[in-house]
Amino acid sequence: MECLSEPNWEKLRDELLERLREAARVAGESQAEAAIYREMLEDWYEVAGKAEAQNDFSLLHRINDRLIPFCLPTPPEGKEWGKYFLHAYARDARWLSHAKQALEKIRADAEKLSEDNEANAELKKKIIAAAEDGLITHV
C-alpha cells in the first residue's frame, strides 16, 4: 500500500465520511419505510384471515379505512397496483444492492487507511465499524 500524504489522507477521509453519511441516511429512510409497510401488511394479513374464517369480507374495507385513506382497489386497479409494487420492489432491491456495494467499498477503502497516529487509527476503526453496522441484515 502506498503511503498517503497528509492532504491526500484528509481528502480521502472526508470523501469516505461523506459516503458513509449518505449511505447511513438512505439506509435509515429505507428501514423506516420498511417498518411501516411491514406493520400494515401484518395487519392486513391478520384481518384477511379473520375475514376468510368469518366469510365477512367487509372487514377488509374496515381495516382499509383505518390504514389507508382510500378504498380498496377494483380488480383491474389491484393488478395495476401489483405492477407498481413489483416495479418499486425491483427498484428498492437494486437500491439496496447498490447501498451494500457502497458500504463494502467504504469498508475496504477504510481498511487501506494508514494508522500512523492514534487519531487516524481510531477514525479508521469507527469508519469500519459504521460500515459493518450498515451491512448487517436488519429484518
Quick structural gist:
With 139 residues, the protein is mainly α.
Major sheet summary line: none
Find the count of extended strands (DSSP E, 2+ residues). 0
* Number of helices in the DSSP assignment: 4
- Our estimate of the beta-strand percent is under 5%
* Overall pLDDT level: 80
Sheet/helix structural class: mainly alpha
* Alpha carbon gyration radius: 23 Å
Instruction: State the share of residues found in helices, binned by percent.
Output: over 70%
Q: What is the overall shape? A: elongated
Q: What is the number of independent domains?
A: 1
Distance between the termini: 37 Å
Low-confidence stretches: none
- Could you spell the SSE succession in H and E letters? HHHH
Question: What would you note in describing this structure?
Answer:
By secondary structure, this protein is mainly alpha-helical. It is elongated. The two termini are 37 Å apart. The protein has one domain (6-135). It has helices spanning 6-54, 58-67, 75-111, 118-135. Helix 1 packs antiparallel against helix 2 and helix 1 packs antiparallel against helix 3. Helices cover 82% and strands 0% of the residues.
